[in-house]
Design brief:
The complex is a heterodimer. By secondary structure, chain A is mainly alpha-helical. Chain A has helices at about 1-10, 10-45, 60-70, 70-100, 110-115, 125-135, 140-145, 160-170, 175-185, 190-200, 205-230, 235-240, 250-260, 265-290; strands spanning about 45-50, 55. A two-stranded antiparallel ribbon of chain A has the order 1-2. Chain B has 2 domains: about 1-55; about 75-300, MetI-like fold (Orthogonal Bundle). Chain B has helices spanning about 1-55, 60, 75-85, 90-120, 125-135, 140-155, 160-165, 175-185, 190-195, 200-210, 215-230, 235-240, 245-260, 265-285, 285-300. In chain B, helix 4 (about 90-120) runs antiparallel to helix 11. The longest helix of chain B has about 55 residues, at about 1-55. Classes of the chains: A mainly alpha, B mainly alpha. At the A-B interface, helix 2, helix 4, helix 5, helix 6 and helix 7 of A face helix 1, helix 4, helix 5, helix 6 and helix 11 of B.
């Protein structure tokens, strides 16, 4: 007891206590909303449980089910395809737009606002708006196609068109990435470009040898966040297509959601969540291995 | 006598032509960039204009192909119909309540923890800060199933508690990170002076740091407002009774209620526009703070 009191009298001891008092809410939060749920989820993965009858230990059955579950593979295919197209496409578009805006054109703040505007629309309003925009009979998109002489597309009724329609919709919210790119571009010191010009670099050489290398941490960040985000698409799939037609938009999280909260198959849903977690982690590590060594970090100081 | 003059003037006019050629080329490329940006901005705005335009249309006019962009007649009563069709006021009240509670929780908890991380040197600080960064990377979907199980054990389903209580524990890793970065830019001397006057760490946090951190706190408050106003999955999962619905869920059920017959896109677009308007207003009023937050989110990587 006296030892503790003595330690508390020392400045270092007092600092430690004060420090932990300040971060105590966070530590409790990690315990309550991360650690305990994570352990619960590990336990769930080995149970057959519908939240009503008592849980039953089923060893590895939930894991074995995945292999032969056709819908799991369909969900994985849909989500991967969506990520593989939507993320690079919206990144290239966002980066190009940011480059154009960074040329000191007039009204840059107005452009930034207009391009960012779609990103702030509430998810449900956004989904309903796009359901209407893509409506095959009376939607504006088909009206525009009609105006330039193309025929109507059954965006949400044809399996081949439903996923492209949702990818188009995802491009609409590229403003967030664009704002981040633009801030990064504005932070590049002019001396870099002047030095490149002295070495005889043209616009493309400057882009390739100055802009892209300096921007690589931001590109990397947007790529990782894009992957994490698109692997968790839910609202659009749930509200616009409900996974259809013929499971063409059965996104992974929608399938997980159905298993958990419609079929109350909690054990299997927990396994699906773990699989998603390790896939995202794996992809992050892969991206990091692939381009991590090429990332340029400004030297501190 | 005159010959040299002619030569001289010819040379200078040639030089001027080259300069003006360079200038006009530069001017031309700026114009092209500007036109590309304007066309892009119009494309981005198109779905929003479509939503607003549809919200003012007479029901028959909605199903007109090709559609008219400017509604004639202009029917304001759609808003009255949409917002009285369902108990909109209850949804609004619930949403505002959730926002107020989340603001209180996030602003208090995240600034409190951020102060500990920014200003107090205690053993294990770097370890816990690494945990803060790590929790930002965990996909929320992974925690969905076990958290639901835990909340249902606590009998918190169909109450606001699952949407209110968690943020009191740390308020979210991103906000802790954002405020920590801001606190570190405030000169230490201010706090030292207060310490000499006998002010405790809690006093410094409350009386010195919080007032100085107002811009960063506003950024956090806006993000929290957007997050809560737009949240769909949380309320969808935890709120079942209509008297607990938020605007997001209200809009979703409004759509399903209409779908029994012919979909009333006019009313749906009116509700969607009404739900989007407050977000857009806040966005324009506080754009400065908002963009700063988006940018910071991209620079943490």
């Amino acid at each position: 007891m006296t030892a503790i009191v003595g330690w508390l009298r020392k400045p270092a001891g007092r600092r430690n206590v004060t420090g932990y008092i300040f971060i105590a809410p966070f530590i409790l939060g990690v315990l309550l909303w991360f650690l305990i749920p994570a352990l619960t989820s590990v336990w769930l993965a080995f149970q057959d449980w519908n939240m009503i009858a008592p849980p039953e230990f089923v060893a590895l059955d939930n894991f074995k089910r995945i292999v032969s579950d056709k819908l799991f593979w369909q969900a994985l295919k849909v989500t991967t395809l969506y990520t593989a197209i939507s993320v690079p496409l919206s990144m290239v578009l966002a980066f190009s737009l940011a480059l154009l805006m960074n040329t000191k054109v007039r009204g840059i703040t107005v452009f930034r606002t207009l391009y960012y505007l779609p990103s702030i629309i509430p998810a449900v309003a956004n989904a309903i708006l796009w359901a209407w925009f893509l409506n095959s009979d009376f939607g504006l998109l088909n009206a525009l196609l009609h105006a330039i002489g193309l025929s109507k597309v059954l965006w949400l009724q044809k399996p081949a068109w439903a996923l492209p329609a949702l990818i188009l919709m995802s491009l609409w919210s590229l403003g967030g990435g664009m704002v981040i790119f633009l801030a990064g571009l504005q932070g590049i010191p002019n001396e870099f470009y002047e030095a490149a010009e002295i070495d005889g670099a043209g616009p493309w050489a400057k882009l390739w040898h100055v802009t892209i290398p300096v921007m690589s941490p931001v590109i990397f960040f947007n790529l990782i966040m894009g992957i994490i985000g698109t692997f968790q698409v839910f609202t659009a799939a749930y509200l616009i297509t409900n996974g259809g037609p013929q499971n063409a938009t059965l996104f992974y999280v929608l399938y997980l959601w159905r298993n958990a909260f419609q079929y109350l198959d909690m054990g299997y849903a927990a396994v699906l969540a773990w699989v998603l977690f390790f896939m995202i982690m794996g992809l992050t590590v892969l991206v990091f291995r692939g381009i991590g060594s090429r990332i340029y970090y400004e030297k501190a100081g | 006598m005159t010959a040299p003059d002619v030569r001289h003037s010819a040379k200078s006019s040639f030089g001027a032509r080259a300069v003006s050629g360079r200038l006009s080329r530069r001017w031309l490329s700026r114009l092209v960039i500007w036109v590309v940006l304007v066309v892009g901005a119009l494309l981005m705005l198109l779905p929003i204009l479509w939503m607003v335009s549809s919200s003012f249309k007479l029901e028959q006019k909605v199903f007109q192909f090709p559609p008219q962009l400017i509604p004639n007649p202009f029917r304001l009563a759609n808003y009255v119909d949409a917002l009285t069709y369902k108990p909109f006021f209850i949804y609004f009240k619930n949403t505002v309540f959730l926002i107020l509670m989340n603001e209180l929780a996030v602003l208090l908890a995240s600034s409190f923890c951020a102060y500990g991380f920014a200003r107090i040197r205690f053993a294990g600080r770097d370890f816990w800060f690494a945990i803060v960064l790590a929790t930002m990377m965990v996909p929320y979907v992974v925690m969905l199933v076990p958290q639901f199980v835990i909340f249902s054990r606590l009998h918190w389903i169909d109450t606001f508690l699952p949407l209110i209580v968690p943020p009191f524990f740390g308020g979210g890793a991103f906000y802790i990170f954002l405020l920590r970065q801001f606190f570190r830019t405030i000169p230490e001397e201010l706090a030292d002076a207060a310490r000499i006057d006998g002010c405790s760490e809690f006093g410094i946090y409350w009386r010195i740091m919080l007032p100085l951190a107002k811009p960063a706190l506003i950024t956090v408050a806006i993000f929290t407002f957007f997050g809560t106003w737009n949240d769909f999955m949380g309320p969808l999962l935890y709120l079942n009774s209509p008297e607990n619905f938020t605007l997001s869920i209200g809009l979703m059920t409004f759509r399903s209620a209409l779908q029994t017959g012919r979909t009333r896109w006019d009313l749906l677009m009116a509700f969607s526009t009404a739900m989007t308007l407050p977000v857009v207003v806040v966005f324009f009023l506080a754009q400065r703070y908002f963009v700063r937050g988006v940018v910071l989110s991209g620079l943490k990587g």
